[in-house]
Write a structure and sequence with these properties.
The complex is a heterodimer of chains A (167) and B (169). By secondary structure, chain A is an all-alpha fold. Chain A has three domains: 51 residues, no CATH class; 45 residues; 48 residues. Chain A is built from six helices and no strands. The longest helix of chain A is centred in the C-terminal third of the chain and has 43 residues. The termini of chain A are far apart. Helices cover 69% and strands 0% of the residues of chain B. Chain B is globular, with a radius of gyration of 17 Å. The chains are: A mainly alpha (167), B mainly alpha (169).
């Protein structure tokens, strides 16, 4: 016996699992009155249950092994894991940044001198400067005396050699 | 998806992918190759696939596309003309003819093989895998109206073929 067109739509809507309550009541009443639709309903219920109970074949173990060999067991594969890769990149960037900063700043400077050390150093510097000034003064005097005494004085005194005198 | 999540997804879905491929390809060797290819493909795209339902749907979509490619390559056209119009038939005798029995599973497999690849895919994705219509429509590139109409037609075709096999074994 064939289902009627209206009933067929309702039966399929039921198996689409989108019926509302009113539609379900309508369908129930319709099935009581229409043997063709009742038959369709029963058949589709058996079909649905049979499909859902259909055994699922198992992927053979050696095929799964082949998948592992081509993916997670490939050399270095785990290093390409997304999060690990991101962590490695973060560590690398941090390392490069720190190295760059260290190179730019150089080794850390020793702590600065105290006020007392600075005062002592200034006194030493003054002493050195005064010795240096005295030594320079003595050197200049000696040089002047030597030059004037050895080179200039004979000319000024008229003791110049004869061949060097003006005609 | 991390490597650990990938391994977990493969263990969870490998049989689903293989079963779906076998139902579409009707060849267990071919289905094993397709399932392997599909699972390796997931590895290659794991950074773009979310674990869980998204992964299941991604795998079924990939499996479907791989199977269709293989079917096209080997140019298998064993199914009935997809354009054949559905004609309701009078199915006798009585509802008990489809009662689950020892032959039910075998009869169902034969009936499924009588569907076109597209119709078979719709029935499997909806009735076996329980995917929502929107997802099936997305995988198969169909609109919802066409999808539901095709599913209704496929169901009735299965029913008719099951009854026919049962009546005339």
């Amino acid at each position: 016996m064939n289902a009627c067109d209206v009933g067929r739509e309702r039966v399929h809507a039921h198996f689409d699992e989108t019926p509302d309550a009113a539609a379900s009541d309508d369908l129930r009443l319709h099935l009581q009155a229409c043997p063709g639709c009742r038959e369709l309903f029963d058949d589709l219920a058996v079909l649905r249950d049979t499909l859902r109970a259909r055994p699922r074949p198992e992927l053979p173990a050696h095929d799964l092994e082949a998948v592992w060999e081509r993916t997670v067991r490939r050399p270095g594969a785990r290093w390409f894991d997304g999060r690990k890769r991101a962590a490695a990149a973060a560590v690398l960037v941090t390392g490069v940044s720190l190295s760059t900063l260290w190179l730019l700043r150089g080794p850390s400077a020793p702590p600065g001198p105290t006020a007392a050390e600075m005062a002592r150093a200034e006194a030493q510097a003054d002493l050195v400067l005064s010795y240096t000034a005295r030594a320079l003064s003595a050197t200049r005097k000696a040089a002047t005396r030597d030059v004037v005494g050895a080179k200039v004085s004979p000319a000024v005194r008229g003791n110049m050699p004869r061949d060097m005198r003006r005609p | 998806m991390t490597t650990v999540e990938y391994e977990s997804a493969v263990r969870e879905h490998k049989d689903r992918v293989y079963g779906y491929a076998r139902s579409l390809l009707r060849d267990s060797e071919d289905a094993r190759d397709a399932a392997q290819e599909c699972l390796v493909k997931l590895w290659q795209h794991k950074d773009h696939v979310e674990p869980g339902i998204g992964c299941r749907n991604w795998l079924l979509r990939a499996a479907h596309n791989l199977c269709i490619d293989r079917i096209r390559r080997r140019n298998v056209r064993a199914e009935i003309d997809p354009e054949e119009s559905f004609e309701p038939v009078d199915v006798r005798p009585g509802p008990e003819r489809l009662a689950a029995g020892r032959h039910a599973a075998g009869l169902l497999e034969r009936a499924l093989m009588g569907l076109t690849e597209r119709d078979r895919a719709i029935v499997l994705l909806r009735e076996v895998e329980g995917l929502p219509y929107e997802e099936i429509a997305s995988i198969l590139g169909m609109n919802l109206g066409t999808l539901k109409a095709t599913l209704h037609r496929a169901r009735e075709r299965l029913r008719r073929d099951l009854v026919r096999q049962e009546v005339t074994p």
